[in-house]
Amino acid sequence: NTQVIFSKVPSTFPVSGEHITINKSQFDLEAPLAEGEFIVKTLVLSVDPYMRGRMRDASIKSYAPAFILGQPMDGHSVMQVIKSNSVKTKEGDYLYGMGKFEEYTKWNDKTASEQNLVVRNDPKSNGIPVSYYVGVLGMPGLTAHYGLYAIGNIKKGETIYISAASGAVGQLAGQISKAHGLRVVGSAGSAEKVAYLKEIGFDAAFNYKTDDTDAKLTELCPNGVDVYFENVGGKMLEIVLTHMNTFGRIIGCGMISQYNLAKPEKVGNLMNIVSKRLKFEGFIIFDHPEAESQFLKDVTQMILDKKIRYQETHTKGIENTPEALLDVLTGKNFGKQVVDVANV
Ligand code: NDP
Predict the structure, then answer these.
(1) Which atom belonging to ligand 1 lies closest to the Cα atom of 258?
(2) pLDDT of 276-288, one tens digit each?
(3) Which of 76, 140, 155, 219 is deepest in the core (most CB within 10 A)?
């Protein structure tokens, strides 16, 4: 049973083999199961930026629990029940939720419900790939949908600017905004990513690494920015503040440029929040399970109608999970980063 272990708290970028390591152990699939127990095989797992925040000393409190040193990491996964002595799950069921980063896990009804594992239909029954349930139809997709409607209060005709726009959250946020009638501008860190943004309907996109962000926002958002979908923070935020329109909204989704810094960057221009009467609201999607059913309805339909595209990077093999997570933190991923643990 190959496991992905949180081994050491990093102070800057984590290193594979040091802060995250691979452990191989025996797992007896034949051992009898007590009442309520069942075994799952992990099919697909998701690595996400917020996991960097969980790689901390357990004494520091935050919105998501710290990973436990020496134990397998966990995160959004799709799993399949391969053996069961539970009345709640049967062999062949697909489970979604916070799975452990290991090939096989034994759960019981109580521990499974604590991790919010839920049984859903065969994900492939409507032709949708299994990995979509940890991406466009999973936590990142819900984040895009909730951020735009509940925080951004997006309106037809407005201009939205999205940073980290080709990523798991950003690419869906852009396509929903476009479908809603906004002018959509995005930035990303490579020419390939920028080309993709234009292909999927962004009105304009630029490479924030090679272009001057301030000059590009002046050129591409001639009427200013009404809504900023904030994924990056730091200097990017400082520049965008000067382009915001009066009564604009900033969707405080994430600040990935800060996650691996020993000391956060200082951000200037905050007086714009007052003078332009901006609403700048952060949110953590884990607080909003109530938003899921409408999101699933809307976005599943958009996928089935082929109204949205969704780029993913698949890493094969659970033993490559550490590199996959590091790729997300350094921008090597293109679209939603997933790890294929089993063939599906
Ligand atoms: P992505 O798939 O977008 O992957 C992360 C991307 O961020 C990288 O590909 C890279 O793209 C970009 N990036 C990495 N480092 C930097 C940097 N130093 N400066 C600028 N960009 C950088 O991730 P997600 O879509 O899953 O997440 C996007 C944001 O949303 C993150 O901030 C994340 O924390 C946040 N989030 C928040 C949630 C919430 O509940 N509030 C839930 C889910 C996500 P590029 O090549 O373009 O630089």
Answers:
(1) 18
(2) 999 999 999 999 9
(3) 140
Any ligand 1 atom below 6 A from CB of 138: no
Q: Which two tokens stand for residue 21?
A: 């390591």
Neighbours of 48 (CB within 10 A): 23
Residue nearest to atom 13 of ligand 1 (CA): 331
Residue pair 223/162 in contact (Cβ under 8 Å)? The answer is no
CB 140 near ligand 1, within 6 Å: yes
pLDDT digits (tens, 9 = 90+) for 35-73: 999 999 999 999 999 999 999 999 999 999 999 999 999
How many angstroms separate the CA atoms of 31 and 22, rounded?
24
Residue 256, ligand 1, Cβ within 6 A: yes
Q: What is the pLDDT of residue 267?
A: 97
Closest C-alpha residue for ligand 1 atom 1: 167
C-beta of 232 in contact with ligand 1 (< 6 A):
yes
* Ligand 1 atom nearest to CA at 256: 32
DSSP, collapsed to helix, strand or coil, labels residue 287 as: helix
Binning the chain into helix, strand and coil, the percentages to the nearest 5 are 30, 25, 40
Residue type, 290: E
- The CA distance from 330 to 259, in Å, is 11
